[in-house]
Design brief:
The protein is 47% helix and 7% strand. By secondary structure, it is α/β, with parallel strands linked by helices. The protein has a single domain, classed as Rossmann fold. It has a five-stranded parallel β-sheet with strand order 2-1-3-6-7. The longest helix is centred in the first third of the chain and has 39 residues. Keywords: Membrane, Transmembrane, Transmembrane helix.
Length: 363
């Protein structure tokens, strides 16, 4: 072979060798990043800190929810877990008083609802509750017209690492963002656990800052920034109707056939089933409460899916009652009072009929 031919062969091999080395280097880099992420995710932290991360957001009440579940010995017989419609609509202390009067025994009710819809968030709360409070005998969850297609924005902040990692990934547009956020969250929480005071946090329960066992989430509320949200009276009916019309027109109905609903509403369906399994394992009854948008007579899609898992409470009597709404989807004080009395009657009827076994003696 001529020297020039040998040089040509060597030069031809050089790009191949460089490509192979670059591929190996890239592989090692990816493996290193995966290992670092796995190590970060495994870092321990005090779970109480997770529930203090959102203190300056609309989800600030999750801290009270955690404290009520873990630190307050007052029993929890009934829990309401849902969206802001249920938060504004169900007066938990009043519901407890009504049920106690109707059933002839003391019933304690809490409202653990958080703004925005997302069944994975309801799973976080239901799991925290049912794995900690064996006396809970009924959980009432929210229903909406059409199941949400996205996850709850606070899920990645509050869920356990294993829950974030085991969220269904197929047709879940938030899965990658939630998983990618997890290593940073775990590192941050681990550091905060070492010196919580430096971050304005605490690992020990402070009764002096606790809102007590009977928090009423209805009526006028004060947001973390000091803004007062007045929910005592109804707005002018034309204003309410226009807002409701716009909301109804902008709704996104079910697009896929019924057999594909598990894929279109993957998070909603998967976590509803998880909650139902946990409720069955803990001998806890489930119910689903629908609070309608003003003037929206369309009802709830795929109602049969929920009927198979618990009692259904449809507050359709509110649909055209303008005087009971604060805005198109949330009740004012009068609406919450009326809804709470109605709900107490429905639950009491189901207890009397044997459809629901309520109270600590039932477990």
């Amino acid at each position: 072979m001529a020297p020039s031919d040998a040089r040509t062969d060597i030069e031809a091999d050089e790009p191949s060798a460089l490509t192979e080395r670059a591929a190996r280097l890239l592989l090692w880099m990816v493996a290193g990043l995966v290992a670092a992420a796995a190590a970060a995710i495994a870092l321990p932290h005090d779970p109480y800190l997770r529930y203090q991360q959102l203190s300056d957001t609309i989800h600030h009440r999750v801290q009270w929810s955690y404290e009520r579940i873990h630190f307050d010995p007052t029993p929890i017989d009934v829990a309401v877990i849902g969206n802001s419609r249920l938060g504004a609509g169900v007066n938990a202390p009043a519901l407890g008083r009504e049920l106690s009067k109707r059933l002839g025994r003391t019933i304690h009710v809490v409202n653990l609802s958080t703004p925005q819809e997302g069944r994975n968030m309801h799973w976080v709360m239901a799991r925290e509750l049912l794995e900690t409070r064996p006396e809970t005998s009924l959980v009432v969850m929210s229903l909406t017209e059409t199941g949400p297609r996205r996850t709850h924005p606070a899920f990645r902040n509050l869920a356990t690492a294993s829950d974030v990692l085991t969220t269904p990934a197929l047709i879940n547009f938030d899965w990658l963002n939630d998983v990618a956020y997890l290593p940073y969250r775990q590192i941050s929480l681990a550091i905060q656990s070492l010196a919580p005071g430096l971050f304005g946090l605490k690992t020990a329960f402070d009764p002096s800052t606790y809102s007590g066992p009977d928090l009423d989430t209805t009526g006028t509320i004060t947001l973390p920034g000091g803004q007062v949200l007045e929910r005592e009276v109804a707005p002018p009916e034309p204003e309410l109707r226009a807002a409701a019309k716009k909301r109804i027109a902008g709704a996104s109905p079910q697009m896929l056939p019924d057999w594909a609903a598990d894929y279109e509403f993957v998070v909603e369906r998967a976590y509803t089933r998880r909650i139902a399994r946990l409720a069955a394992a803990t001998d806890t009854a489930l119910a689903f409460l629908y609070l309608p948008i003003y003037t929206d007579h369309g009802g709830v899609d795929e109602l049969g899916f929920y009927e198979a898992k618990g009692e259904i409470y449809l507050a359709n009597q509110l649909i055209d009652a303008a005087a009971l709404y604060h805005d198109y989807g949330h009740l004012n004080r009068a609406g919450a009072d009326e809804l709470t009395r109605w709900l107490a009657a429905r639950i009491a009827d189901d207890v009397d009929s044997g459809a629901i076994h309520l109270g600590r003696e039932a477990k």
